[in-house]
Design brief:
Number of strands: 6
Strand content: 25-35%
Helix content: 25-40%
Largest sheet: 4 strands, antiparallel
């Protein structure tokens, strides 16, 4: 069961964000940046973070003009 903090921290929009999850990406959290070979791996690492760290973390794709996803947007990422 989802706790109250997680329930209230997420936006109401839960629609999927479709991404190329094989693109390289960087996970940023707690003044740390970790480069991953794929967005899929960066998202998996984000899922393992504590709730408090997840809220302020972001993932950026490592392509020119790459996208950046913050906090609870990351839950909505779906690979194509």
């Amino acid at each position: 069961m989802e706790d109250d903090v997680a329930k209230h921290a997420r936006p109401q929009d839960r629609s999927a964000i479709y991404v190329d999850d094989s693109a390289p990406a960087t996970l940023h959290y707690s003044e740390t940046s970790v480069i991953f070979p794929t967005l899929r791996e960066a998202r998996t690492a984000w899922l393992a973070l504590s709730l408090e760290v997840k809220k302020n973390a972001s993932i950026t794709t490592n392509e020119s003009g790459g996208a950046s996803y913050r906090g609870w947007e990351i839950y909505r990422l779906w690979g194509r």
